[in-house]
Write a structure and sequence with these properties.
With 516 residues, the chain is mostly helical. Helices cover 75% and strands 2% of the residues. It is built from 20 helices and two strands.
Length: 516
């Protein structure tokens, strides 16, 4: 266990360090800060590294096992009338436990925090049940995405919805698929794959996360249609100044019990559901149960450290950097700086580690973790750059979301189905807690300094981060499809089609003289 923990800490250090280094360089050069704020960010960075390491170790030994066991058991039952209600309950419980959903809900005043959290939870529950229903009916996922997103965009563009609700609605679809939801829901898919084992089970094991991202968008849009269209003007709280290092420690110590309570309240319903389901159906052996509960303890401690470090150490610095850069007269530097931070920040997202591992495992290495990670990083870098352009110019988010999703849906009919499922899953996974706690405050600070409409210009950055991986990973699928296509060789002036397996490294030279 100790060796595994050190490996996870090493991995998280490699993920967080590039982002921290960029921010430290900015604080030492372009945007100078006090020594106390510098120290606050340093403590937050350390807590992030340790938190991600503990969380990923805990997820491997608890959340993933729980999800796989429940998923496999549900499929064995083959009772759609039982599976759908259980999926709905799981969807609601894991969503209200998502830390980054609460972060987003706390930052937007357009909807009450608790109303938004539970409404989004219901949306995820409904669409998780719909995702399982799709698998049983063998409906092609690309067709379903076309129908769902066509309805979403038509509804979002209608006069019933205030423009201020649209960015938050699409952001909610991204933040719901975070460090708790992704391991659980993806493991449900893996449980399905392990039992069915038919030719479509591999591709069907992915796509659950993507389906669960649609529900929150629709729910928040419905809330927008039912709510007062006069959205209050948004302001940012001033960033506190610290004159002593002890005050910085006090800030973290004050926040720690709050997140201990929040994470406990979030995880306890999942634990209670697992204990109940195990007692009546799973009946796992004692050794497995001990392993799961030890993993849950690691998950709890890791999430507490992660959220405390991200919210206390990262969020204020992100807001301060955004305000300073946008108000410096050189607001254009936000675009390249945002792209560089976006490129590296996706590697620090806890759920991204889970996705890469799950994809490489179930595809038996055909989609490598390295290639998937690079595609995600490029996509997120582009999306953050576009989001910063929106903050500076005030361009409507529809000018990017509609063409982006349209192109992604068109490509989905040209690539192997598994790439479509993975791509749409990755879109939700990439927009995790760090996006909500650092990039969103960065955009909010920049929007206020630039004199823009924060609800329409700053919000939507999570949605942009969730969109671009749909394109980059499916383009990876196109490249893979092209490489595995039948090849031809020129032999004695004639073309002979040679159908080579993509794993074949040997070409047999044909000799016409021998009649072969």
């Amino acid at each position: 266990m100790q060796r595994n923990l050190m490996e996870k800490i090493k991995e998280s250090l490699g993920s967080v360090l590039p982002v921290a280094a960029i921010v430290f360089i900015l604080m030492l050069t372009i945007v100078p800060v006090s020594g106390e704020m510098f120290f606050m960010f340093f403590i937050g960075t350390v807590m992030l590294v340790v938190g991600i390491g503990l969380f990923t170790l805990g997820a491997d030994t608890s959340m993933i096992i729980i999800g796989e066991e429940i998923g496999a058991k549900l499929v064995r039952l083959k009772k759609i009338g039982l599976i759908l209600p259980v999926c709905f309950i799981i969807g609601v419980l894991v969503t209200v436990a998502e830390p980054d959903l609460k972060v987003l809900a706390d930052q937007t005043p357009i909807v009450d925090t608790q109303i938004m959290v539970w409404s989004v939870g219901v949306g995820v529950g409904i669409f998780l049940a719909l995702a399982f229903w799709r698998i049983f009916l063998q409906i092609k996922i690309s067709v379903l995405f076309v129908i769902l997103y066509a309805f979403v965009f038509i509804f979002a563009c209608s006069p019933l919805i205030s423009p201020s609700f649209v960015p938050t609605a699409f952001d909610s679809g991204g933040v719901t698929t975070g460090p708790i939801t992704v391991p659980f829901i993806m493991a449900l898919g893996l449980g399905l794959s392990s039992i069915r084992g038919d030719k479509t089970s591999e591709e069907d094991s992915f796509g659950l996360v993507a389906m669960c991202s649609v529900g929150p968008i629709l729910i928040v849009l419905i809330l927008g249609a039912l709510s007062d269209t006069n959205v209050p003007e948004q302001t940012l709280e001033p960033i506190g100044e610290y004159s002593l290092v002890s005050e910085v420690f006090g800030k973290f110590m004050h926040a720690l019990p709050h997140y201990m309570k929040d994470v406990a309240m979030a995880i306890l319903p999942i634990v209670a559901f697992f204990v109940f389901f195990n007692a009546i159906s799973l009946k796992l052996d004692k050794k497995t149960l001990i392993k799961i509960f030890v993993g849950l303890a690691f998950t709890y401690i890791g999430l507490v450290l992660f959220l405390t470090g991200a919210n206390t150490g990262f969020m204020p610095i992100g807001q301060y950097l955004g305000e300073s850069l946008a108000g410096s007269g050189y607001s254009w530097v936000l675009v390249p700086i945002g792209m560089v931070i976006g490129y590296f920040i996706v590697s620090a997202e806890p759920a991204v580690h889970v996705l890469k591992q799950q994809v490489e495992t179930i595809t038996e290495g055909r989609i490598s973790a390295k290639a998937l990670g690079l595609s995600l990083a490029i996509g997120v870098a582009c999306s953050v750059g576009i989001a910063m352009i929106r903050v500076i110019t005030g361009v409507s988010i529809f000018w990017f979301l509609i063409p982006g999703y349209a192109l992604a849906l068109i490509i989905s009919f040209l690539v192997p189905p598994i790439f479509t499922s993975v791509a749409f899953d990755a879109g939700g996974v990439a927009s995790g807690p760090l996006t909500a706690t650092f990039l969103l405050p960065l955009a909010m600070g920049a929007s206020v300094a630039a004199g823009g409409n924060m609800a329409e210009d700053a919000f939507g950055i999570v949605a942009m981060v969730a969109m671009t991986p749909l394109l980059t990973i499916q383009l990876l699928g196109l490249v893979s499809k092209f490489k595995s296509a039948p090849k031809t060789e020129v032999l004695e002036g004639q073309m002979f089609p040679l159908k080579l397996d993509e794993s074949c490294d040997t070409v047999v030279i044909l000799d016409k003289k021998e009649g072969v």
